[in-house]
Structures are given as structure tokens and as C-alpha cells.
Amino acid sequence: MTASLQISQLQLGYDSPEGLHTVLQGFDLQVPAGHIASLLGPSGCGKTSVLRAIAGFEPVRAGSIHLGEVLLSGPKVHLPPEQRHVGMMFQEYGLFPHLTAEQNVGFGLRRMARAERDRRVLELLAVVGLAGAGGKFPHELSGGQQQRIALARALAPAPALLLLDEPFSNLDTATRERLTLEVRDILRAAGQTAILVTHNAQEAETMADQICRMTPV
Ligand SMILES: Nc1ncnc2c1ncn2[C@@H]1O[C@H](COP(=O)(O)OP(=O)(O)OP(=O)(O)O)[C@@H](O)[C@H]1O
């Protein structure tokens, strides 16, 4: 079930030989359930680090991350990534090349009963407008189609929150603009809470209900 996100006074950093390299400090973000938020800012300001922290791949140095009522990360709390109900979609599509489109979409549903999984995969392929492409391999699909399959795969387990890290940056301008609108409509129709990372202001304005402008610390 889709959920709200609350990030309070988040601090993130990396250990270096000179000590802690702080990337982010006192960062707050509230995203109501069903909203699309965008993190917008120049390279290196910490956008990807915030997503990694939400997904559970980065420890938080201070502050907290709640998804609905659940504390994902906080002082002495770190829920493992697989227990967070957070989905992800990245710029490299990340599709498995040896699996068909429908096998890719069904990848996160392996624990479901076969019939239910098949039904969900067909439903998601239809949602992203690729109902007839389930048997194709990634190399038989265009970049835009691959990205739509990646979106279907990310949505299939019905994550509470979907993270999108520059998902359109490898695409040509026309495909990128079309897909931005399509993905926005799909997320809105699903009532999916989502966070989009981008350094493209126009993309952020097209997709998002709210924009969080970030600057390097
Ligand atoms: N694993 C790591 N170890 C050390 N430093 C890191 C690591 N990952 C990121 N950083 C540093 O953290 C800062 C923020 O990086 P991050 O990737 O979050 O920025 P970004 O805003 O997403 O940038 P971009 O738009 O280029 O992807 C940068 O200074 C980067 O060098």
C-alpha cells in the first residue's frame, strides 16, 4: 500500500581517510501518500545519497526516515532494504538481459502463486502500454520501451514508495519528454508515492507535485 514519507533532520556522510565527509545535514522532506516529489539540484549535492538512504543502502548519521508509521532508519534503527517496501528504477534500466519482458516484470513476485503472478504481470504490462511485448527480450525493445518495462517491474510488488533516479537521462529528448508525461500519468493513476531525482528543472516541474531544491553542503 502506498504511504507517506517523512524525513527529519537527516545527516548523511561517507568515511574518508580525513574523517567523515558530510554530504547532507539537517535535511527535511515530507511527501504525502500518493504525491510525487522531485529532488532537484546540481551534481554532487546528495540526491542519490538520499535515495540510497531511503532504500536502506546507506546508514544515516543523524535524523530519521519514516514510511507511513514505520521507522525505516533512525538512531540505532536500520531496517534491511528487503523489509522496506521501497521500489527503485534507475537510469540504466537494470533489466536482466537473459529474461523476457514478462519475466523481468515478474522477477520481484517469485513468492506469489503462479496464476496470481501471471495475472499481475499482464496487468502491469497493460499499465505501461506494452501488453503485446511480454515475450520480447530487452535487446528487442527500444530504450523507451525498456524503461517502461523497468517501471512495470518496479510497480509490480506494489511498493509503498517508488524511487526514480534520473530514469530518463539515457533517452533522446523526444522520448524523454513523452515518457516523463506517461510515467507521471501511470504513477498518478496508481496513486503511487514517488520520489524523482533529476537535475532537469523542466522534468521536475512536469512530473512532480512538489519540488525540493537541494544545494551542496
Ligand atoms: N560511496 C561513496 N563514498 C564516498 N563519497 C561518496 C560516495 N557516494 C557519493 N559520495 C559523495 O557524496 C556526494 C553526493 O553524491 P551523490 O551521488 O549523492 O550526489 P548527486 O546529487 O546524486 O549527484 P549526481 O547528480 O551527479 O548523481 C558527492 O560529493 C560524492 O562524491
Describe the structure.
With 217 residues, this protein is an alpha/beta fold. It has six helices and ten strands. α3 packs across α4. The mean pLDDT is 92. It binds adenosine-5'-triphosphate.
How would you briefly describe this protein structure?
The strands form two sheets. Strands 2-1-4-5-6 form a five-stranded antiparallel β-sheet, with helices on one face. A five-stranded parallel β-sheet has the order 7-8-9-3-10, sandwiched between helices. Helices cover 30% and strands 29% of the residues.
| Structural class designation | alpha/beta
Number of E-type strands: 10
Question: What integer is the average pLDDT?
Answer: 92
Per the principal axes of the C-alpha atoms, what is the gross shape? globular
* Strands in their spatial order, largest beta sheet: 2-1-4-5-6
Along the chain, the helix and strand elements come as EEEHEEEEHHHEHEHE
Strand coverage percent: 25-35%
Bound molecules: adenosine-5'-triphosphate
Number of helices: 6
How far is the N terminus from the C terminus?
34 Å
Radius of gyration: 17 Å
As a percent range, the share of helical residues equals 25-40%
Ranges where pLDDT stays below 50 over 5 or more residues in a row are none
Q: Sheet bearing the most strands, described?
A: 5 strands, antiparallel
Which key terms come to mind for this protein?
217 residues; alpha/beta; 5-stranded antiparallel beta sheet; 5-stranded parallel beta sheet; 6 helices; 10 strands; 30% helix; binds adenosine-5'-triphosphate; P-loop_NTPase; transport; ATP binding
